[in-house]
């Protein structure tokens, strides 16, 4: 009681003492009254809307998280086993700022190759990161700090969060041509022109495989040409590899673009994520690596990456890293993982085929070739925002308004319904 | 091909984490790590709380658990329970839905996300931090784009609080400036204001419309009581004003490496809190998209079960009591040895750390001659001491104080 009276008294005193000078606000209003509500995240907002929909027919082909053929999230068997081994046995001490050394070592082998000379020669500066987002952000902050005049070239379109990341790192952005709406494939000429016209030594963001959101990747030949042009222009290639193994089912094949650039002598940067290919989404496990001229430089660069991580989160989370190193460090578990990744990739490839065939069988006037030509989790359908809105309001089908379909959300149970709905909203095109 | 980063120079070792690196490289069997603030048992071993192991087992044995992305703001039940933990279950701010709570990566992450939010949305971009403070604080705020000023805090003469200096410096701060306050167990000094002093600080902060940002890294760990250690925060919230709070479960639940914490922003109204939360999410998304699930799941499992919660409070008190007992032992041993100087600050200070008052040269001497590792500001982690190692430390302090200026 006494406390309350004292508080009331002091509040009154404070109000009496607060000056009417402009710039000071009274105790009764909030500091934050001018804060605007933020727009919903375009991708994650789709799932929120889906969850709120009571319709029994609803289909979520929005966010890029894998679902099995029953539409259920999957925890891989290799992951469950790794967790069983970890639980109850390890301490929970801080990891070093650069994260789990073991996990980073195994992760580099995946990207650079099991017998990579760069790994042997210790030329790679690498730190554990908060999945792909965290790796991209650390790199963007590093780029800002050490190449302060530089910009980042980002493909059109790209995962929308890429723009937010480099913007918050205060690195100016430019775009380069990528998707060709007419062919629903790669605008290779546009891409090469933009690469050629960019000032020497520009920084480019490249999707290593399974481009998000379009699913359109350069062919191996095209990658070689891109690499040669990058060499001529002295550009820096930063690869975002979020789907290694998940795209074709073969991790080595999915890393081909990176391997080509390495062969050609580029000093690249790579963001790797285990969100999709190990199903560790919520664990936030990934790795940022930067290939350097020599071991000394790699040590230096790593020390600076750590300086950026320390004031962001001090050191990265332990659990997900333990799962990864348990799996990749055990030949049996690793082999199980490779099998399970292939199963996921194959299911998606199968659904692409089924969706395309279903649309063709319905007599669609449009071509749906791109559904099977594109690769990875997403299909850039070519649907317009208005058509997407109709799919949602009339058929309770949820996807992002750019027409991106998450193939992982397509099942034998809903592919017919999906094909029919797409046909209905597009047949008069 | 030359690297575009060939101009990059090597960064210095982190002063705190670098101590453990140096300790690990020392081959001496007598070495003692009093550097980084992670709890150690009487046997000098890290500790995973029993209740944490139980929560872990529960989680791993639950086949329905998946690893999907959690929301940008983190696990909803974790957030609610964390707000209750720091503010009290009966807090009107919670009942009135005026608190926006976002799961973040431990204390560091909560501070950084809060600071980035302030930089974007608050009219003042200066933050006053105590002198001294945790070494990472200025870096966190600088990288968020805030400018850092200091207020007097530690008085080397008394090895206690420079209360007069604190009031003067905060009194001279521009209206609306942000003020970083250590909720309890100040790091690195272990010196906390009394509750009367807290009340004066609160009145000053509110009269100048300063915005308090609490760093609560040791709730329950300092005194052994979760409520006592939350007292400073709760009195500020009770006056109806706004504040930010960064909470960490690293020490009090021993979840260090899992990076579990929460940022709470106490607002004037539910409407404002909701808008604020939506904006904080925009800070998080381009930083790491969403926080890690594991540690927060453990915390939520414990906090929502009354049995586990009670067991936790017992284990927590056990850790706090061991530290308090180490303080007592160290103090008595120095008295018994007749080491020159007044060492009563060892038992007056609270929490994991003691600011010994030893200078850089004395610290370097103790490392070189006695293989004792601590930060160069003379801060020792009491958690790293045991009854067995107290005598060695006393020898070293005695030698340092009598032989090194």
Largest interface: A-B, 92 and 88 residues
Number of strands of chain A: 13
Instruction: Report the biggest beta sheet of chain A as strand number plus sense, adding barrel if it closes.
Output: 7 strands, mixed
Shape type of chain B: globular
Low-confidence stretches of chain A: 1-27
| Adjacency order of strands in the biggest sheet of chain A | 2-10-9-8-7-3-4
> How many helical stretches of chain A?
17
What is the assigned CATH homologous superfamily of the largest domain in chain B? Type I PLP-dependent aspartate aminotransferase-like (Major domain)
Quaternary status: heterodimer
Query: What structural category do the secondary elements of chain B indicate?
Result: alpha/beta
Helix content of chain A: 40-55%
By CATH, the architecture of the largest domain in chain B is named 3-Layer(aba) Sandwich
Shape of chain A: globular
Total beta strand runs of chain B: 13
The separation of the N and C termini of chain B measures 53 Å
Q: What proportion strand of chain A?
A: 5-15%
Poorly predicted sequence stretches spanning 5 or more consecutive residues of chain B: none
Radius of gyration of chain B: 21 Å
Mean pLDDT of chain A: 91
Explain this structure to me?
The complex is a heterodimer of chains A (429) and B (405). By secondary structure, chain A is α/β, with parallel strands linked by helices. Chain A has helices spanning 2-17, 44-52, 77-86, 101-112, 117-120, 131-146, 160-168, 188-197, 220-233, 251-254, 256-263, 295-313, 318-328, 331-361, 369-373, 385-395, 415-426; strands at residues 59-60, 124-129, 152-156, 173-177, 179-180, 185-186, 203-207, 236-241, 269-273, 286-291, 378-380, 397-398, 404-406. In chain A, helix 6 (131-146) crosses helix 12 (295-313), helix 8 (188-197) packs parallel to helix 9 and helix 16 (385-395) packs across helix 17. The relative contact order of chain A is 0.15. The model of chain A is unreliable at 1-27 (pLDDT under 50). Chain B has 405 residues and is α/β, with parallel strands linked by helices. Chain B folds into 2 domains: 16-47 and 320-400, Aspartate Aminotransferase, domain 1; 69-304, Type I PLP-dependent aspartate aminotransferase-like (Major domain) (Aspartate Aminotransferase, domain 2, 3-Layer(aba) Sandwich), CATH 3.40.640.10. Chain B has helices at residues 17-25, 50-60, 76-87, 92-95, 106-121, 136-143, 163-171, 195-207, 226-229, 231-238, 270-288, 293-304, 306-337, 345-348, 360-370, 390-403; strands at 32-33, 99-104, 126-131, 147-152, 154-155, 160-161, 178-182, 211-216, 243-248, 261-266, 353-355, 372-373, 379-381. In chain B, the strands form 4 sheets. Chain B has a 7-stranded mixed β-sheet, sandwiched between helices. Chain B has a two-stranded parallel sheet with strand order 1-12. In chain B, helix 8 links the parallel strand 7 (178-182) and strand 8 (211-216). In chain B, helix 7 runs parallel beside helix 8. Chain B is globular and about 60 Å long. The N and C termini of chain B lie far apart (53 Å). The interface between A and B is large, with 92 and 88 residues.
